[in-house]
Known about the structure:
Elements: H1 3-81, H2 87-170, H3 173-185, E1 191-195, E2 198-199, H4 208-216, E3 221-222, E4 229-231, E5 236-239, E6 245-248
Parallel strand pairs: 1-4
Antiparallel strand pairs: 1-2, 3-4, 5-6
Amino acid sequence: MLPDLKLVVRLQDLDNRVAELTREIAKLPKHIAEIERKLVAHQRKLEADRAALTANQKDRKRMESEIQSQQQKISKLRDQMLQAKTNEQYRAFQTEIEFCENEIRKAEDRILELMSESEPLDAAVRAADEALKGERAQVEAEKKEAHERTAGVKKSVDELQSERKQIVAGLTPAIHRRYENIRKHRRGVAVAEALEGRCNACNMAMRLQFFQDLRRGDQVMMCESCGRILHYNPPVEVDDQTGDSAPVAQE
């Protein structure tokens, strides 16, 4: 294989790997953002449950205060009943006492309702709080891992780019320009392999004479269909079980 052809094949391998690593780098921040969004959503749900629990507790205290107030009022009304001079006054005090007792029963019923509502709410808050502790730890661990992975990937990209510069320096300028031009217009793929008389990039069959010229490997040739630089790997001789050699095409 011509030196230039060997270099562009390696150059394509490097560019493919750099593109792959670049996509991986781009995905990591998105992954972190996604798990952080989930964490924020869970935190907001916990805050809403806590607010509901706090409101429940305030309502219970208000009802308890209302009961205490009505009880004090009843106590005063009973003292005043003892001083009533007429039946009408006595019945009026009695009516007020019954009203206060009815208000107390309403408040007690409401307290029971609030207590039944607070139990699952309190359990949900405790469970969510505990789950968030674990989730925060997991998010921090994933963020750390992502940062370390990003640093490692960037280092690999730098190493590949360094090797790429060396390969470009060894390439014939005209071949390099052709490679970059094809790569620009072919979604990053400028080099293709000839397999079974076809270009493995566009899958178009080659003319017999063209394929024979390509197999000689004494010139840089482009696919007549897609325009990519073609390279041909000859079959590798391997020994079979009988000891005879048989050509096996390299994939």
